[in-house]
Design brief:
single chain, 99 residues, 3-stranded antiparallel β-sheet, 3 helices
Length: 99
Amino acid sequence: MERTLTGTTRVVAAPEQIFSDLGGEIVILNLNTGVYHGLDEVGARIWHLLQQPITVDELHAAILAEYEVEAEICRRDILELLRTLLDAGLIHFADASLA
């Protein structure tokens, strides 16, 4: 069953990865697949926030508070990034019983 990301969806970084901050950008290694992933500055900030369970709405509010971006564009970009990270196995739903 596929779960939809909503504002109240809680997500967290998967434990099967390691990452390194390279001057504001993040490189993540998925330990299950051996594939590296890179994130730009804003993606890196989101990645740091994902180290603890957090809702989509909380991520949205944090990024809006730190960057000048329109709210709808911010939400769209966050959801797109979260879907990419979910597909790559780098994050998962924090409440696994609902995943």
